[in-house]
Specification:
6-stranded mixed β-sheet; TrpB-like_PALP; amino-acid biosynthesis; binds 4'-deoxy-4'-aminopyridoxal-5'-phosphate; about 375 residues
């Protein structure tokens, strides 16, 4: 009984007041949230200690891997579904249809289960069985279809649209060009970062898939700071956006690729279009730097991050160096490494991508698969 009392909230508060050696904070928040959808967002903003020390800046990462579906895309999933509800396109018992192979599908699956909608997912059949299995066990109906280009009517996005059109009370959420995606970040990610830094933020940077996170967060931070906060796109190899920005608006053909998943783009989406001019610049981050940062974040910060998060952290470090000592730079930790571990920490995979030598000697101990 004594030990139960010792771990009660009152005892923890008292211990905290006495200067307990534990850094675990006692939550003073009252009450509970109503269902999974209200558990999305309000993620911690983590100061990356070693990188902050190294740069003499505050390098901060928004812990989006803490969302119920494990990624930043839970926010967009919730907003596109609630936008369809508000517009009367989706009524009780309805069906959500989306073309996605990744985190958006997982976010939608959680949101749809929680709200009682059916979910249908179309994806290119080049995606792993693991992703298909996960979506199916989260309750989605999954159609892997031939991986053909966007201008082919059989492309998975068009199939998703036609499927929704063929049903009554169904919506194609269309994450790339549905601006409810960006609005999620205007209304939640941006304000959270502004509040968590108390407005003491000098720059923001992140990569784009749909562009929702970058555009929405940038739009809010620029508004809140009267344009003072700078914003930079972080782009992987194979994406056209970095060269689009550097060339002042020339769209090149997409060529090459990257180890990162969920980011990189061949066009300017409707989510990005109106806000791309708000950006102060862009950075291209190599796969070598990204994979090294996956390992560094694990070793130095205890953070188990996917490749897009690691790319964002490299970008935040480079932006911090550009901004100068004492500056505060925020980025997005999009998801964890859980779904990618068999690649990111595998010797054979690293060798197949010519990235084995990008891992410094003292971090080789993490190549365990
Ligand atoms: N990282 C990962 C792992 C993702 O799945 C996505 C979404 N495709 C992003 C980053 C990019 O987010 P957004 O779609 O908001 O640009």
């Amino acid at each position: 009984r004594q030990s139960i009392r010792r771990f009660g909230t009152t005892a923890l508060r008292a211990a905290a007041a006495e200067g307990s050696p534990y850094t675990l904070r006692v939550s003073t928040a009252q009450g509970s949230v109503n269902g999974l959808t209200e558990a999305i967002g309000n993620t911690p903003l983590i100061r990356l200690k070693r990188l902050s020390e190294e740069t003499g800046c505050n390098v901060l990462g928004k812990a989006e891997f803490q969302n119920p579906g494990g990624s930043v895309k839970d926010r967009a999933a919730l907003f596109v579904v609630e936008d369809a509800e508000k517009k009367g396109l989706l009524r009780p018992g309805g069906t959500v249809v989306e073309g996605t192979a990744g985190n958006t599908g997982i976010g939608l699956a959680h949101v749809c289960r929680s709200k009682g909608y059916k979910l249908v997912i179309y994806m290119p059949n080049t995606q792993s069985q693991g992703k298909i299995d996960l979506l199916r066990l989260l309750g989605a109906e999954v159609y892997p279809v031939p991986a053909v280009a966007f201008d082919n009517p059989q492309n998975y996005n068009h199939q998703a649209r036609r499927h929704a059109e063929s049903l009554d009370n169904a919506v194609w959420t269309n994450q790339f060009d549905n601006v409810a995606n960006r609005q999620a970040h205007v209304e939640t990610t941006g304000p959270e970062i502004w509040a968590q830094t108390g407005g003491k933020i000098d720059a923001f940077t992140c990569a784009t898939g749909t562009g929702g996170t970058l555009a929405g967060t940038t739009r809010y931070l620029k508004q809140a700071s009267d344009g003072r906060v700078k914003s930079f796109l972080a782009d992987p190899p194979g994406s056209v956006l970095h060269s689009f920005i550097q060339s002042g608006g020339k769209l090149a053909e997409r060529s090459g690729g990257s180890i990162t998943e969920g980011i990189g783009q061949g066009r300017v989406t409707d989510n990005l279009q109106p806000d791309i001019d708000l950006l102060d610049g862009s950075l291209n981050i190599s796969d070598e730097k990204t994979i090294e940062m996956v390992y560094r974040c694990l070793d130095e910060e205890g953070l188990y991050l996917g490749a897009s998060s690691a790319l964002n952290v490299v970008a935040a470090k480079e932006v911090a160096e550009k901004m100068g000592k004492g500056s505060t730079v925020v980025t997005i930790l999009c998801d964890g490494a859980y779904r990618y571990a068999d690649r990111l920490f595998s010797k054979t995979w690293l060798e197949s991508k010519n990235l084995r030598s990008a891992i410094p000697k003292h971090l080789e101990k993490y190549i365990v698969l």
